[in-house]
């Protein structure tokens, strides 16, 4: 039996097997070495992800994953009082929810390799332009997500990875290093 790599996250994970996606690239890289499984849930935040843990990663599993990515935060960082506020999770709760997810996975498999991935940067102009193209010029007075706010969540994700001795990918910072890359990805 081949080992399993589980990609656990929100819609960014859910869509990772689309043409040219990061999940598809992992599956290609580990072809014949490991099975890559996608457990991505569009619109989910860390609070809602906790409800899935026992179902997706049962403690009595005979074959727990060998590795997992945990990629949440884009929805958690939605701003209160705006159109996506139901997805908002306060930043300290976000960090604790990530901790609970990690601890549950480690309980399933103490040897599991876990990689935390920060939420990506927000292309505020692109998101507003897209909303206007769908709903007209008055589509969105105020953005429901902001890059600065998402950066706070990214920092908490990295902070937790350091505290728990986990590997991490600081996608929020990395994507901003290449001019125009964040905009390309969010399209």
UniProtKB/TrEMBL annotation:
Q: Which InterPro entries match?
A: GDSL, Iah1-like, SGNH_hydro_sf
The question of whether Transmembrane is a record keyword is answered with no
Q: Which Gene3D superfamilies match?
A: SGNH hydrolase
Q: Which CDD domains match?
A: Isoamyl_acetate_hydrolase_like (cd01838)
User: Tell me, what is an example of a GO biological process annotation in this record?
Assistant: lipid catabolic process
Q: Which UniProt keywords apply?
A: Hydrolase, Lipid degradation, Lipid metabolism
Pfam families listed in its UniProt record: Lipase_GDSL
The molecular function GO annotations come to: hydrolase activity, acting on ester bonds
What residue ranges carry the coiled-coil annotation?
Answer: none
> Which top-rank group of organisms is this from?
Eukaryota
User: Its family?
Assistant: Belongs to the 'GDSL' lipolytic enzyme family.
Protein name according to UniProt = SGNH hydrolase-type esterase superfamily protein
Q: Which organism is it from?
A: Prunus dulcis (Almond)
């Amino acid at each position: 039996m081949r080992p399993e790599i589980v990609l656990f996250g929100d819609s960014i994970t859910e869509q990772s097997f689309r043409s040219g996606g990061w999940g598809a690239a992992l599956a290609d890289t580990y072809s014949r070495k490991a099975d890559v499984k996608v457990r991505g849930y569009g619109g989910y935040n860390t609070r809602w992800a906790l409800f899935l843990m026992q179902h997706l990663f049962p403690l009595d599993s005979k074959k727990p994953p060998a590795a997992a990515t945990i990629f949440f935060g884009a929805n958690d960082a939605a701003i209160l009082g705006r159109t996506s506020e139901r997805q908002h999770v306060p930043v300290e709760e976000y960090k604790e929810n990530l901790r609970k997810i990690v601890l549950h996975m480690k309980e399933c498999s103490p040897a599991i390799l876990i990689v935390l991935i920060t939420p990506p940067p927000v292309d505020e102009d692109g998101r507003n332009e897209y909303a206007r193209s769908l709903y007209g010029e008055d589509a969105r007075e105020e953005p429901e997500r902001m890059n600065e706010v998402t950066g706070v969540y990214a920092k908490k994700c990295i902070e937790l990875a350091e505290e728990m001795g986990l590997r991490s990918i600081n996608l929020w910072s990395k994507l901003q290093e290449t001019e125009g890359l964040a905009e390309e990805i969010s399209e």
